[in-house]
Amino acid sequence: MTAPGPTAEKVTAQQPPWPDPDRLEEIRHALSGRPALIPPEEAERLTRRMAAVQRGEAAVLQGGDCAELFADAAPRVVRRKLGQLRELSTAIRTGLGLPVVTMGRIAGQYAKPRSAPYDGLAGGGRLPVYRGDAVNGAAADPRARIPDPDRLLTAYDRAAAVLSTMRDEQMAHDDAERIYASHELLLLPYELPLIRAAADGAGFASSLHFGWIGERTADPEGPHIRLAASIRNPVGVKVGPSATPADLVELARLLNPERRPGRLAFIVRMGADRIGWLLPPLVEAVAETGIPVVWLSDPMHGNTIRSGSGHKTRTLWAIRDEIAAFHRILRDRRQWPGGLHLEMTPEPVTECVAEAGDAGAAAFPRFRSPCDPRLNPEQAAETVHAFTSLLRAG
Ligand code: PEP
Ligand code: CO
């Protein structure tokens, strides 16, 4: 008898079913010859800034679209997103009197892990899921949903365009207020060819400043954690309801063996109904290792519900509740509740609602996200204000 093999989920590790392996190989080769999108010094600088967060001397705001669209690489659209990030981080900074490390889910947030391989259609039948613009198209058309490896090159080009707008926009601002680029480290044929050697010979991901590993690919033995371990950039790992204290201890050892402050963040996304009993043993186990980590709250991904009309939504009530529990649990254990990871947009969308009773069909006249529901500007400001008030009171 052979040893039991890994599960299908582990084998595929959320990698899309690319139909043309030869073309995929050509694209990987092309990406390996492209210039770095981010210089390693900028990623190092972010690590130093995250070290201040780890010491409790700064806070983090990380936010943006669930799925960034190629069409939104236009400078006008990017500037609006940067404006929202700046406004919110200024609100935290003035509210707390502390520096804020600002990161967009931007300039490469083009790939999505999915819970199921198909979307059910209202009239019966099914459609392969949308996996982000770097993979396939969001249109409800079976042809659009076929993964296309050439989209990986477009992702690189659009990320370069967005970063160029970010650099232009940064010129009007102090260096301490820099906005960093972050996305989920998901697509291995995109990320691996873009790993470059830094001056000291260590690998670094040249596609981003900060990368995170999603909840579905955070297996300590999986290829994504191996990827994160091989780069020097600051990295995060999403921590969901299935994470055990032993998992987190192992992840902390694998991802921060040198105990570099600012290198590793745990991004907690448990759900308001579960965080109260799931998070305390995790925080305690990690604290006991003495390995420095930054704790962030993603109050979005554990609180997704399906409205009666079939829209994916989230209530502000659950979001605030999860943030409050996160804050209390960390504070009670003498750890710094370092910041927020939000899905948000500067556009006046109607995707999240105040409370579950508001989730009737009429509540979503402007639901535009091809993936998860985002906070609109007022909702994002309210959420940030709630967090800032808790930190100030604490
Ligand atoms: C996301 O951040 O969009 C996401 C899919 O999160 P998670 O991996 O936590 O589910
Ligand atoms: Co999302």
Main sheet makeup: 8 strands, parallel, barrel
The CATH architecture: Alpha-Beta Barrel
Helix share, percent: 25-40%
Name every ligand kind in the structure.
phosphoenolpyruvate, cobalt (II) ion
Catalytic activity: D-erythrose 4-phosphate + phosphoenolpyruvate + H2O = 7-phospho-2-dehydro-3-deoxy-D-arabino-heptonate + phosphate
Binding site for Mn(2+): 66, 301, 343, 372
Pfam family, one: DAHP_synth_2
Cofactor: Mn(2+); Co(2+); Cd(2+)
Q: What does this entry look like structurally?
A:
It catalyses: D-erythrose 4-phosphate + phosphoenolpyruvate + H2O = 7-phospho-2-dehydro-3-deoxy-D-arabino-heptonate + phosphate. Pathway: Metabolic intermediate biosynthesis; chorismate biosynthesis; chorismate from D-erythrose 4-phosphate and phosphoenolpyruvate: step 1/7. It holds the Pfam family DAHP_synth_2. GO terms for molecular function: 3-deoxy-7-phosphoheptulonate synthase activity. This protein has helices at residues 8-12, 21-32, 40-54, 75-96, 150-170, 188-191, 223-229, 245-255, 275-289, 316-332, 377-393, and strands spanning 59-64, 100-105, 118-120, 126-128, 179-184, 195-197, 203-205, 210-213, 235-239, 264-268, 294-297, 305-306, 312-313, 337-343. By secondary structure, the chain is α/β, with parallel strands linked by helices. The protein has a single domain, classed as TIM Barrel. The strands form four sheets. An eight-stranded parallel β-barrel has the order 1-2-5-8-9-10-11-14, surrounded by seven helices. β12 (305-306) and β13 form a beta hairpin. It is globular, with a radius of gyration of 20 Å.
